[in-house]
From TrEMBL:
Pfam families: EAL. InterPro entries: dGMP_Pdiesterase_EAL/HD-GYP, EAL_dom, EAL_sf, HDOD, RNase_Y/CdgJ. Residues 205-391 form the HDOD domain. PROSITE patterns: HDOD. The lineage of its organism: Bacteria, Pseudomonadati, Campylobacterota, Epsilonproteobacteria, Campylobacterales. This is EAL domain-containing protein.
């Protein structure tokens, strides 16, 4: 079971109430890591921990959370599934503010995210660096340890009383805290006020293929868009992949603001077909998954063409499902037990029976005719052991006396 570690430190307001938490993600060796690190591994788990139903347990029901973001985090689309009302995007002090990155930052602000500058050292260089972003920044986390006293005062004079709130960061002594209060800071953070708490988040999600099948079932049952969105948002990996696919497939310059928007613009039919492709090509670790996917798509299209007008959609899904057993190291009956699919689809997948059986047989015969042709043309290239495994897996008895 994979784990990720989150350091959680309180940020206080001037009345000593909890305003927010800073969340810092750690790896197994307790080293800081960004959300963008290892998108296929750590990031999935991090996103899972901060978009799941456990969020209220982690932060409280209404408390904000600061998360540090860099160029990679901003550009990989990972942040798109976060709740804009709960998270403050804190720009790392090392961020390279290229035109593309500034554009991304502005986009997130327009979507409703609060923005912060992290570890602001009050220097002239820092002011120049962020000059064009101050119109979009909500909170400046001023590092009182690394800031020169005179520079700190100048920055306070520049921003105090404006829409930008000021946070005294790295308060390490009671004297620091008293001085920060007297200077008029809005928020306060430091070891003397609160020691960071390390929390371990463990992955305990259902197998991805089961999640996809359940979502397909929701679509087939004509659940409301809100119900479908709610289901998808509980599966951060899927949300991320869906938004990524949508961004790549749409020619329109659409900035994703919600899963509902994606579902609406894609349409349910396209979403359903994308899920089937995702099931074969993304979820499976089978080395032949791409070839089997192409075969499944062709089979599904063939069965769809054969079906009568009112059954075409169902025939397509039945064709795609009919090869699921070939793609996962799991008994197809066990996999199908996790979902309640249409009876005609289930009969075909589990027993090769029902109204689509004839169409499936026709498709299989065409596939076998092609594969027979390929096999005979390349028979001398095939390994004897592989041939034996293939025959025995198919239930063909080999007479050893004839070898």
């Amino acid at each position: 079971m994979n784990s990720v570690y989150i350091s959680k430190q309180k940020i206080f307001n001037h009345k000593n109430g909890i305003f927010a938490y800073e969340l810092v993600f750690k790896d197994a060796d307790n080293n800081p890591t960004t959300i963008a690190n290892n998108v296929k591994g750590t990031a999935k788990l991090i996103i899972s921990s901060i978009t799941s139903n456990e969020l209220d347990l982690l932060l409280g029901r209404n408390t904000l959370a600061f998360i540090n973001v860099d160029e990679a985090t901003l550009t990989k689309g990972i942040l798109d599934i976060l709740n804009k009302d709960r998270f403050v995007l804190s720009l790392c002090e090392t961020i390279n503010l290229t035109e593309a990155i500034v554009k991304k930052i502005v986009q997130y602000k327009k979507r409703g995210f609060k923005l912060s500058i992290g570890h602001f050292d009050s220097s002239a260089a820092m002011i120049v660096k962020y000059q064009r972003l101050f119109a979009y920044i909500d909170i400046i986390r001023m590092d009182i340890l690394s800031s020169e006293p005179e520079n700190l005062k100048k920055v306070m004079q520049k921003f105090k009383g404006t829409r930008i709130k000021l946070l005294a960061h790295n308060i390490e002594t009671r004297e620091d805290f008293k001085k920060s209060l007297e200077m008029g800071f809005d928020y306060f953070q430091g070891y003397i006020l609160n020691q960071p708490e390390i929390i371990e988040i463990k992955s305990s999600k259902e197998p991805a293929q089961v999640v996809i099948l359940q979502l397909i079932q929701h679509l087939k049952e004509s659940k409301t868009t809100e119900e479908i969105e709610s289901f998808i948002k509980r599966q951060p990996d899927l949300s991320f992949k869906l938004i990524q696919f949508f961004n790549k497939s749409k020619k329109l310059d659409v900035q994703v603001q919600s899963i509902t928007q994606v579902i609406t613009l894609m349409g349910r039919d396209q979403l359903l077909r994308w899920l089937m492709v995702y099931l074969y090509s993304e979820v499976s670790t089978n080395t032949a998954s791409q070839t089997i996917l192409e075969l499944a798509l062709k089979r599904a299209e063939s069965m769809e063409a054969d079906a009568s007008e009112g059954l075409k959609d169902k025939a397509y899904i039945a064709g795609m499902f009919s090869l699921l057993g070939s793609i996962f190291d799991i008994n197809i009956k066990e996999l199908m037990a996790h979902v309640k699919m249409d009876r005609d689809i289930t009969s075909l997948v589990l027993e090769k029976k029902g109204i689509f059986a004839g169409s499936l047989l026709k498709a299989e015969q065409a596939e076998k005719a092609y594969l027979r042709k390929i096999m005979l043309a390349n028979f001398d290239k095939l390994d004897t052991t592989d041939l034996i495994y293939t025959l025995e897996d198919g239930g063909v008895e080999i007479n050893k006396d004839d070898i």
